[in-house]
């Protein structure tokens, strides 16, 4: 089981589910895996996730450095690689010791390279994921010139406009006064593909029928 | 039948590695032990368990690190005697499971963030009930299941008791 980005609501929900029947992230006692997730959470608002809240207060009660285990991104967060070794934490006099790991720096460079590659692969994978398509539901008011305008014909013309990502919905005639009706028509557009201004302009191009077009309602779905 | 029996004290004393003394049921049907405290007869389940803790190598670990936690642990030991003790009847067990499930909602252990003997005692008392729960019930009392699963992983606590299976729990949540 892998958990998504903990900064999102969805990630938190998944963590909540994960912790429902577990006291700790890994195993049966607090470990560095808990600390890693704890730090990944940062100061995020926990919302109404009782299991995360319980776990969070519990882990907070520990001295983090004293917990057993190796600090790494736990498998539930999708990480397998170890975090950068805590070199800075080492006392400085370590440097005077015999250098048993002569190739240390080289290895570091290699590890960095591997890490970079993984990051790249991850970013690629992420970019391929289908992103949520942003859509909007729009209600348009189309006003005719006078009471003699053929509303049926007008609607036919409006509906004849076709664009990629545009879907026409229901329509109705709403009386304005003096026997004049306006056409109220619904449509759903994909924000990325359809420009609403362009759509309005297109409708106004039917000059024989249309006096003006207003946007009566505009809702993001 | 009650659950706070001689057998339960024996198991707790085995966990603490302290001899339970001479355990018997006194005339009033109260659990008693002769040899825990010198020249004194300790009566009552909770009192015996607390005497065992005091005799153990690290009372603070089993009772709680500060006085507040110790008081909480003692309260839960009383709860064990007064309530969990009678959990072998279906009606009582439902109520106790519900209570405990609520208590364990916001903390991993009964008394908070530290495991105390209240957890060990409750585990031993509830083992017979939890092991017979259906998967649906385990999911219903998910906080108990999580707590129980965590406690039973310690071999010293579990001793010869059967490991209860919670593997499929998340399918029912």
Automatic annotation (TrEMBL), chain A:
<dbReference type="GO" id="GO:0003746">
    <property type="term" value="F:translation elongation factor activity"/>
</dbReference>
<dbReference type="Pfam" id="PF00736">
    <property type="entry name" value="EF1_GNE"/>
</dbReference>
<dbReference type="InterPro" id="IPR018940">
    <property type="entry name" value="EF-1_beta_acid_region_euk"/>
</dbReference>
<dbReference type="Pfam" id="PF21972">
    <property type="entry name" value="Arc1p_N_like"/>
</dbReference>
<dbReference type="Pfam" id="PF10587">
    <property type="entry name" value="EF-1_beta_acid"/>
</dbReference>
<feature type="domain" description="Elongation factor 1 beta central acidic region eukaryote">
    <location>
        <begin position="100"/>
        <end position="126"/>
    </location>
</feature>
<dbReference type="InterPro" id="IPR036219">
    <property type="entry name" value="eEF-1beta-like_sf"/>
</dbReference>
<keyword id="KW-0648">Protein biosynthesis</keyword>
<dbReference type="InterPro" id="IPR014038">
    <property type="entry name" value="EF1B_bsu/dsu_GNE"/>
</dbReference>
<protein>
    <submittedName>
        <fullName>Elongation factor 1-beta'</fullName>
    </submittedName>
</protein>
<dbReference type="InterPro" id="IPR053836">
    <property type="entry name" value="Arc1-like_N"/>
</dbReference>
<dbReference type="InterPro" id="IPR049720">
    <property type="entry name" value="EF1B_bsu/dsu"/>
</dbReference>
<comment type="similarity">
    <text>Belongs to the EF-1-beta/EF-1-delta family.</text>
</comment>
<dbReference type="GO" id="GO:0005085">
    <property type="term" value="F:guanyl-nucleotide exchange factor activity"/>
</dbReference>
<feature type="region of interest" description="Disordered">
    <location>
        <begin position="76"/>
        <end position="96"/>
    </location>
</feature>
<dbReference type="InterPro" id="IPR001326">
    <property type="entry name" value="Transl_elong_EF1B_B/D_CS"/>
</dbReference>
<feature type="domain" description="Translation elongation factor EF1B beta/delta subunit guanine nucleotide exchange">
    <location>
        <begin position="135"/>
        <end position="221"/>
    </location>
</feature>
<dbReference type="InterPro" id="IPR014717">
    <property type="entry name" value="Transl_elong_EF1B/ribsomal_bS6"/>
</dbReference>
<dbReference type="GO" id="GO:0005829">
    <property type="term" value="C:cytosol"/>
</dbReference>
<dbReference type="InterPro" id="IPR036282">
    <property type="entry name" value="Glutathione-S-Trfase_C_sf"/>
</dbReference>
<dbReference type="GO" id="GO:0005853">
    <property type="term" value="C:eukaryotic translation elongation factor 1 complex"/>
</dbReference>
<keyword id="KW-0251">Elongation factor</keyword>
UniProtKB/TrEMBL annotation, chain B:
<dbReference type="InterPro" id="IPR042450">
    <property type="entry name" value="EEF1E1"/>
</dbReference>
<dbReference type="GO" id="GO:0043517">
    <property type="term" value="P:positive regulation of DNA damage response, signal transduction by p53 class mediator"/>
</dbReference>
<dbReference type="InterPro" id="IPR053836">
    <property type="entry name" value="Arc1-like_N"/>
</dbReference>
<dbReference type="InterPro" id="IPR036282">
    <property type="entry name" value="Glutathione-S-Trfase_C_sf"/>
</dbReference>
<feature type="domain" description="GST C-terminal">
    <location>
        <begin position="35"/>
        <end position="173"/>
    </location>
</feature>
<dbReference type="InterPro" id="IPR010987">
    <property type="entry name" value="Glutathione-S-Trfase_C-like"/>
</dbReference>
<dbReference type="GO" id="GO:0003746">
    <property type="term" value="F:translation elongation factor activity"/>
</dbReference>
<keyword id="KW-0648">Protein biosynthesis</keyword>
<dbReference type="GO" id="GO:0005634">
    <property type="term" value="C:nucleus"/>
</dbReference>
<dbReference type="Pfam" id="PF21972">
    <property type="entry name" value="Arc1p_N_like"/>
</dbReference>
<dbReference type="GO" id="GO:0017101">
    <property type="term" value="C:aminoacyl-tRNA synthetase multienzyme complex"/>
</dbReference>
<protein>
    <submittedName>
        <fullName>Eukaryotic translation elongation factor 1 epsilon-1</fullName>
    </submittedName>
</protein>
<keyword id="KW-0251">Elongation factor</keyword>
<dbReference type="InterPro" id="IPR053837">
    <property type="entry name" value="AIMP3/p18_C"/>
</dbReference>
<dbReference type="GO" id="GO:0005737">
    <property type="term" value="C:cytoplasm"/>
</dbReference>
């Amino acid at each position: 089981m892998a958990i998504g980005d903990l900064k999102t609501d969805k990630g938190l929900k998944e963590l909540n589910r994960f912790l429902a029947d577990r006291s700790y992230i890994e195993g049966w006692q607090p470990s560095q895996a808990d600390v890693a997730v704890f730090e990944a959470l940062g100061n995020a608002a926990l919302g109404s996730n009782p299991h995360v809240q319980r776990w969070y207060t519990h882990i907070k009660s520990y001295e983090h450095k004293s917990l057993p285990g190796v600090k790494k991104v736990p498998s539930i967060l999708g990480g397998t690689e170890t975090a950068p070794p805590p070199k800075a934490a080492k006392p400085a006099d370590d440097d005077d010791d015999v250098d048993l790991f002569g190739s240390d720096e080289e290895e570091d460079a290699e590890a960095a390279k591997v890490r970079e590659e993984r990051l790249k692969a991850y970013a690629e994978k992420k970019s391929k994921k289908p992103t949520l398509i942003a859509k909007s539901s729009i209600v348009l008011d189309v006003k005719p010139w006078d009471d003699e305008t053929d509303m049926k014909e007008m609607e036919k013309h409006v509906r004849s406009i076709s664009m990629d990502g545009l879907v026409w919905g229901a329509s109705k005639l709403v009386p304005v006064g003096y026997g004049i009706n306006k056409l109220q028509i619904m449509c759903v557009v994909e924000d990325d593909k359809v420009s609403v201004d362009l759509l309005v302009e297109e409708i106004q191009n039917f000059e024989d029928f249309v006096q003006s077009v207003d946007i009566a309602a505009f809702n993001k779905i | 039948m009650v659950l706070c029996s001689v057998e339960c004290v024996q198991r707790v004393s085995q966990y603490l590695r302290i001899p339970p003394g001479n355990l018997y049921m006194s005339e009033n049907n109260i659990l008693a032990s002769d040899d825990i405290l010198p020249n004194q007869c300790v009566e009552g389940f909770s009192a015996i368990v607390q005497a065992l803790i005091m005799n153990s190598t690290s009372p603070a670990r089993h009772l709680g690190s500060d006085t507040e936690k110790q008081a909480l642990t003692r309260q839960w030991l009383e709860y064990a005697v007064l309530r969990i003790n009678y959990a072998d009847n279906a009606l009582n067990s439902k109520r106790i499971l519900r209570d405990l499930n609520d208590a364990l909602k916001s903390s991993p252990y009964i008394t908070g963030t530290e495991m105390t003997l209240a957890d060990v005692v409750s585990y031993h008392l509830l083992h017979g009930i939890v092991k017979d729960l259906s998967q649906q019930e385990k999911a219903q009392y998910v906080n108990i299941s999580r707590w129980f699963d965590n406690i039973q992983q310690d071999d010293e606590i579990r001793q010869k008791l059967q490991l209860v299976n919670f593997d499929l729990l998340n399918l029912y949540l």
